[in-house]
Amino acid sequence: MANIAVYDKQKNQVAERELSDAVFNADIKEYLVHDVVRYQLAARRQGTAACKNRSAVAGGGKKPFKQKGTGNARQGTVTAPNHVGGGVAFGPSPRNYAFKLNRKVKKQALCSALSARFKGEKLTVLQDLKLDAISTKGFKQIVDTFEFSDALFVVGEPNPEAELSARNLRNVKVLRADGVNVYDVLKYSNLVLTVDAVEHLEGVLA
Questions:
Q1: For the segment 128-168, what is each residue's pLDDT rounded down to a tens digit?
Q2: Is 205 within 8 Å of 181 (Cβ atoms)?
Q3: Closest CA to 114 of 173, 17, 188
Q4: Where are the beta strands (DSSP E) in 145-185?
Q5: Exposure check for the chain: N or C terminus, fewer CB within 10 A?
Q6: Whole-angstrom Cα distance, residue 166 to residue 168?
Q7: Which CATH number fits domain 2-45+98-205: 3.30.530.20, 2.60.40.1120, 3.40.1370.10, 2.60.120.200?
Q8: How far, in Å, CA of 16 to CA of 126, rounded?
């Protein structure tokens, strides 16, 4: 079991905690992390790009000119792609970009991402993240105390004060433990977990 220091909001060490090797000290499988990031980004795509093909363009029920005798190539409809204002050939159509990944792959990828933060010494554990009131200034003081350029904060239980205090801070995000995902863990250089978030993640992933 790996050990990590537990700090309060003033960056004073108040305890030390063991971390599950299966969750925070696992082998880093980059290919699984890559697959899950692709999976998350693909699921976010709207897939609404579209254009009119020759059947969707209005008109075109009549031949533009007679078949023979004009000296021009024969044409059957003005909605064909070779006509100005005609339909688009092989254009995009609405589609769903999402694809399936096994639950075990997602779980191992998240363990790899968490382990990468721990092994890279970019994981910080806080005793709690309780604030007396919603205060962007108060939350920024915590970020500045730890000298984070950017950070993902993860709380175990709903914490409206912290979540609302951080939403106007650039490069800072607060997530609940049940919403932790590979993309956000990798997006931010620093990962900050509360003790109850660590317990939640170990309970789910270990």
A1: 999 999 999 999 999 999 999 999 999 999 999 999 999 99
A2: no
A3: 188
A4: 151-155, 172-176
A5: N
A6: 6
A7: 3.40.1370.10
A8: 11
Burial code (b: 16+ CB inside 10 Å, e: under 16) for 140-163 equals eebbeeeebeebbbbbbeebebbb
- Joined tokens for residue 101: 């990944």
Which residue matches tokens 């020759």? 54
pTM exceeds cut of 0.90: no
* Residue labelled with tokens 């363990």: 111
The residues facing 2 across adjacent strands are 19
Question: Residues 78-128: pLDDT tens digits?
Answer: 999 999 999 999 999 999 999 999 999 999 999 999 999 999 999 999 999
Domain map (residue ranges) of the chain: 2-45+98-205, 49-96
